[in-house]
Every structure is written in C-alpha cells, then in structure tokens.
Amino acid sequence: MTTRRQLLAAMAEVGVLLGVNAVVTSCSTGTPKRAVQQAGVGDGEWTPPRSPPKTSPGVSRFTLPFRRPPELRPTRDDPSGTYYDLAQQAGTAEIIPGLRTPIWGYGGTFPGPTVIGRSDRPVIIRHRNELRVPVSVHLHGGRTPATSDGYPTDLIAPGGSREYTYPQGQRAATLWYHDHRVDFTAPQVHMGLAGFHLIRDDVDDALPLPKGDKDIPVLLTDRLFEADGAMFYPSVDPSLSKPGIYPWAMNGFYGDTMLVNGVPWPLLQVSATKYRFRILNASNARIYELKLDPAPPGGVHFVQVGSDGGLLAGPVSQDRLVISPAERFDVIIDFAAYPVGTRVVMTNGWADKPVIDQVMAFDVVRTEPERSSIPAVLSTPDMPDPNAAVKTRKFEVKRRSDGMWGINGDMFDEHRISADPKLGTTEIWEFTSDVRHPMHLHLVHFAVLSRSYPALGPFDAGLKDTVHVRPGETVRVAARFDGWPGKYVFHCHNLEHEDMMMMANFQVTP
Ligand code: C2O
Ligand code: CU
Ligand code: CU
Description:
Elements: H1 4-18, H2 20-29, H3 33-39, E1 76-78, E2 81-93, E3 101-106, E4 112-118, E5 123-129, E6 137-140, E7 161-166, E8 173-179, H4 185-190, E9 194-200, H5 202-206, E10 215-223, E11 257-260, E12 263-264, E13 267-271, E14 274-281, E15 288-293, E16 302-307, E17 310-318, E18 321-323, E19 328-334, E20 343-348, E21 358-366, E22 389-399, E23 405-407, E24 417-419, E25 426-433, E26 437-441, E27 446-450, E28 466-469, E29 474-480, E30 486-492, H6 495-499, E31 503-508
Parallel strand pairs: 2-5, 4-9, 10-14, 13-21, 22-25, 24-31
Antiparallel strand pairs: 1-2, 2-3, 5-7, 6-8, 8-9, 10-11, 11-12, 14-19, 15-18, 15-20, 16-17, 16-19, 20-21, 22-23, 25-29, 26-28, 26-30, 27-29, 30-31
Helix pairs in contact: 1-2
Bound molecules: CU-O-CU linkage and copper (II) ion (2 copies).
C-alpha cells in the first residue's frame, strides 16, 4: 500500500523534473489510502485536474469598498465564559463582481467572523462541521490546552461537532483561527477557513490608541481565480478527499489577485487621523513588503505597536513591513500626513511571482479632530530570558533528498516527539534554513534573539509566535514553555510546506 508520504515524495521528484502532466499521471497510479480514510468520504471518482488559468478575471482596483469581517455574537456570556457557535459550511461569495466563488467558511463566510474575547474570561466555541471533509480548528497564537489546540489528527468528522475551550489567560493580542487538518491544511485554509480572534484586556483598552471603527483587522490573502469565479488550487480532487497537490507548488501556491478581508484591492475612505490596523498575513505562501505610496513625509510609513503576541514595550517606526505567512503586525497609520483628497496606496514590494504590486488604497476624504495618540510606553511584555534557558535545541528546516520538506530530516509523524521541554522552563531553539520558512510554535510566544544577517531585524520586536527564517539563515529564539503540558506541533507556516511534512511535535512534560 502506498502511503501518502511515499506518493508525495515520488510525485515531488517526478513533478519537479517533468511538470504538471507527468505529475497527474504518476498521481493517478497511486492510491493515497491514508488520505482517503481520513476524508471519510470513501473512494470516490478521480476527478481530472483542471490546469491553472493564466490569469484571474480582471478586477478594477480600488473600486470595491473595504469590508471589515463581521463580529461573531456570543450565544451566552457569563462569568464562566463567553460562548459561541460556529458552523463550517460550504457557500458562495461574490468576490469578483458578477461571479460566484465557491468557498468554505466559518459561518459560511470568508474570512470567518471575528471572535472577540477578554483575557480574563474563557472563550468556548462549539464548532459544527457541515463540510464533506474532516476539519481541525486551531487558534493561532492561543495559549490553549492541547485538547483544544486543534492537533492536526484531532479531527471533527463531517457532520460532527466539538467544543473548543480557550482559557484566554493571556494578554491582548491579534490571534487568528484556521483549519489545521493533517495533510490538508493548505487547501482547506485556501478554501476560506480562516478568521480573526482578538483578545482584549484592560492594559490595551486604557491606551489612547485608535479605537472602535479606527481599530481595523486586515487579513491578507492572494488567490487565483478561474473564468467562472472558482478559486483555483492545484488539487486533483475538488472535494480534497485525495491529495495530489503541490509538486508544481513546491515553494507554495501563489495567486495573482490580492484579497483584503476577502475583497480584491479594496478602497477605504479615511479621515486625516490615526488608524490602527491589525495586519495578518493569512496567505498560504506569499510574503509581503508593505509600504505606502506616496510615502509620508519623514518616511515613517507605519508605527508598529504590536506583534504576534500583543503590544510592544514601545512604538517602533517602520519604513516598510515585511510580513511572512501567519505573522501579525499591529500598526498605526497616520493619515494626517496627507492632504484631504490624497489617495494613498498600500503597495507590496516583495517580488514573489505572479507579482502583486498593490494591496489596497485609502482615500483621505475629510479632516477630523484627532482623539488618539501613541504613547512612548505601551506595555511591559514578559519576554523570555535567554539567560534562564536550560537547553538549546537545533532544528534544520530543509528540503529532504526525496523532495519533501523536513525538520531535522524528518517528515511529520504524529507519534514522533522531536523536543520535550519541561513545563515552566525556558529553552533556546535554533532554526537553520535552506530557503525561506516562516517557523511557528504552538502554545508559546518567543523572543527572537539573533539572526545570521544582520544580527536582529526591524521586525523582530516583541513576543512572536512565527518567525521569518530567511534563506541559509540561522535564527535563535527563546521560549518559556509554560501554560499546559501536552503534545503540540511546530511547523513551517508556508502551508504547502507544512502539508508536505515540515511539521514536528514537542511534548511539554510536567
Ligand atoms: Cu497557524 Cu499550526 O498554525
Ligand atoms: Cu498556531
Ligand atoms: Cu517552509
């Protein structure tokens, strides 16, 4: 019996050499039993692959209004917790005007509704799986007990439901929730299974930062659309019950259409005041280098106030933002730098192909009294102390000789424990890469200690849970493994790399 790993490894080799058609042929000769069993939808017909469209149907830029994802209403809110219900459903969305795009969404929408919790009160979400495939829900950035962390093989079967409990005893931060099904995270997130989960607390509330309709979540994704509006993904079976993706997307899958909160190149009208944007890169693989055009006088495009794990100690002025998959940057843009009537375009200078050079636009339409400010001291993040580290672990995050992506040469195996930190201790983890890998740890937030070039980057401030490891680089981070004992994953957040096995377990031992 061919396992999916053997199959993918074989496909990877053939695919790299011969391209799509060869892959499809080799693909149809193998039977990915493991995946079929997981899917629980039986051994259905093998659907012939569609070849990728050359370009998506055109959308004129900066004509569609910016949309804030809806906020999810609790079903109950009392001292024991804030309770939510969420169904994962297939639906359609009008993403490109006039076309209907099949999506999978939390609550049937893409992005899913924003969950808002407070750090002193648990959030309990009952997820119902109304899709044809198994799912697993992960709260990215959450300090969550292992039983609710959305372990990749801890699945909700089609038709099933499950309650996830998030104690939330953590500081205010911009988190997000997304699918984490083993082997299929990339296609399932690509179908739309992602949304924001914000945690608020008194420290953040008390700051004079922009609030309310000037506190705006921004979810970035890129997609490729077929002429009929469907999102193209290189899977041979649209039900995703079989693998067959990736060999021609070894470095991840990239689209040509920029979506911001699910809207192509939207336009947001703003007043000439400060706004807070919680920017999340929810793309499968694409990295962005964001700037504003025209550049604000003085060259401060963004004032960063927070990172993955919440507020920084103090604001950091940025002349650009490089944001790799799953990273969050909490930034202030001050539109007072521009005269009323200016159109400010958020651009992308990162040249992944197909190139997407623009993200969204802001029209400065009016003046308004400024009610917010950026204090010099924001918070006191509890940074892990590298001097307290009891252990250093080294991880090579590299492609294997068989074409798959590995961690210390291993492909993901739910039974292998690659690290066993003791609860409450601090460790230094070192990642050494071949190409770019945004490395993510569940459960913990870490301090970035050093890089190969230069010593520390401008985007490394604060508590992080995902770090952009660049080609040939060694990045050292310090994490304190407190919270809960149990088995958690760490992985590359290029989702195609993750599904191609660049994932491993750590077991926090009591
Ligand atoms: Cu954003 Cu393991 O996940
Ligand atoms: Cu995570
Ligand atoms: Cu990677």
